[in-house]
Design a protein that fits this description.
Elements (H helix, E strand, L loop, with lengths): L6 E7 L16 H9 L1 E3 L2 E2 L5 H10 L3 H4 L18 H7 L3 E6 L14 E2 L19 H13 L7 E6 L6 E2 L5 E2 L23 H31 L5 E7 L14 H4 L3 E4 L8 E3 L3 E2 L3 H8 L14 H4 L12 E7 L3 E8 L3 E6 L10 H4 L2 H10 L7 E5 L17 H17 L14 H5 L5
Parallel strand pairs: 1-6, 1-9, 2-11, 3-12, 4-5, 4-6
Antiparallel strand pairs: 2-10, 7-8, 9-10, 13-14, 14-15, 15-16
Helix pairs in contact: 5-6, 6-11
């Protein structure tokens, strides 16, 4: 085991998926790529949910959204259960000094997170207004982190949650949602590689070109933080994790349980402990990140988590890794009721829907984007099927639903049963019927007499 407890930097961004150079995308992310070359990259890391607060809640609790209570957006009257414990609680109890830099978006009450130090303002609602969220821009958050490290004011060991606003869409003057090209340098749409799961259309290329400016901003910010670690002389004793919450804000990605919606980057470096230059193809969920951090930090992993530590996967000294054969994902509320539960194995994806909606749900910011305009007539009208099954070997883009094909009958029944057993074991409220919205009490308090 490591001789001393590491400092821990958990760096996370919005709506970024795996749209990074180290995942084979044609975008310049030299700082993240260098971190990946020195550390570990997880090629099949998935989020518990294809949306912000529920996914972040799982990252910070090691538990699924319908278990920890955060089944919708934190600014939409959803909250973690009162007794829910999060990563800074566990590390704080173990003697870590805990810090919050930038965005968090798992509660509207930052005080309940109990960080020792909160360094940035405006971290309650990621929203859409560029002016409101200036403090959470990657460049500004990284500057605060670097200044703090340069000041040598921290106490070892410390934990820092570092959240960036990028790559969240913002509302433009024309009412559409883009990536704030006036603030970031956009790429020429003609130079952008199309997405494999969407048609190659001008509006989609336009949005990708804009988003890439935000990707570059994230990478530069991470470079600033990594340089500050070197200057502070603590690079070798710091566990750095770069992750993302869910897929990019494009149709068939954010807001869906297709792989493009729940895929998330995960890169980690801990010199001398985590094997450097390795890529892992094992299934990993973001509920696994918390127990892994705790084990690497020498902190007991609590019972009752959905996650399992993968410390033994990245470092032989931690024993034998208990590999996953499945991961689960879910969605309940976003800007509308969209209840979905999904199970993914190495080869198959089974999706169960619980409410009549169009074939592909488009979150409001995606619907009102150039990309959304290109496809919404095709996907926003037909009624969805309640069951979907994809053979990811033959249809990696999940565009061939084989749920009713006779040769997949046994697979369908097996995955459907396993998904139901998981819902029963975790006391999923969907089993009792529709889940009321987070502001249900306010609705019920209508003064009708």
């Amino acid at each position: 085991m490591a001789d001393a407890r590491p400092n821990v930097l958990l760096i996370h961004g919005h709506d970024t998926g795996r749209y990074l150079g180290c995942y084979g995308v044609d975008v310049g992310t030299p700082n993240i790529d260098a971190l990946a070359a020195d550390g570990a990259v997880f090629d099949r890391h998935f989020a518990s949910a294809p949306q912000c607060s529920p996914s972040r809640g799982s990252l910070m609790t090691g538990r699924m959204p319908h278990v920890n209570g955060l089944m919708g957006l934190a600014h939409g009257n959803w909250e973690l259960h009162d007794d829910e414990r999060i990563l800074p609680h566990y590390l704080g109890d173990a003697g870590y000094e805990t810090h919050l830099f930038g965005l968090q978006h798992i509660t509207q009450d930052t005080d309940r997170l109990e960080y020792d130090h909160v360094h940035s303002e405006g971290n309650l609602y990621p929203g859409v207004s560029p002016a409101v969220h200036q403090a959470n821009r990657a460049r500004n958050v990284a500057s605060v982190v670097a200044s703090y490290l340069d000041a040598d004011a921290y106490t070892d060991p410390f934990f820092a949650s570092i959240g960036f606003f990028e790559c969240h869409r913002v509302e433009e003057e024309n009412g559409r949602f883009g990536f704030d090209a006036g603030y970031y340098d956009a790429d020429d749409p003609d130079d952008v590689r199309p997405l494999p799961y969407l048609p190659d259309r001008r509006g989609i290329r336009h949005d990708l070109g804009e988003m890439r400016g935000m990707i570059v901003a994230i990478d530069e910010a991470i470079g600033t933080i990594l340089e500050a670690l070197v200057s502070a002389g603590i690079e070798d004793e710091t566990l750095v994790i770069v992750t993302t919450e869910h897929g990019i804000a494009f149709p068939r990605a954010k807001g869906t349980c297709y792989d493009a919606g729940i895929e998330a980057a995960l890169v980690m470096r801990y010199p001398g402990v985590v094997d450097g230059g390795e890529r892992y193809d094992e299934l990993v969920s973001n509920v696994d990140v918390l127990p892994t951090i705790l084990e690497l930090a020498g902190v007991d992993v609590p019972d009752g988590l959905a996650g399992r530590s993968f410390a033994a996967l990245v470092a032989d000294e931690y024993g034998t890794y208990d590999e996953r054969d499945r991961i689960f994902a879910e969605m309940t509320w976003h800007d509308t009721y969209n209840p979905i539960r999904a199970i993914r194995t190495g080869r198959y994806k089974y999706v169960r829907r619980f409410w009549p909606l169009p074939t592909v749900y488009l979150p409001a910011d995606v619907f009102a984007s150039e990309s959304g305009r290109e496809v919404r007539e095709a996907v926003a009208t037909p009624a969805r099927q309640y069951e979907e099954l994809y053979d990811l070997r033959d249809a990696p883009q999940e565009d061939d639903n084989v749920v009713y094909e006779p040769r997949y009958r046994d697979v369908r029944l097996d995955l459907s049963e396993r998904l139901h057993e998981w819902m029963v074991a975790t006391d999923d409220p969907l089993l009792d019927g529709p889940v009321v919205p987070g502001d249900y009490e306010e609705i019920q308090s209508w003064p009708h007499r």
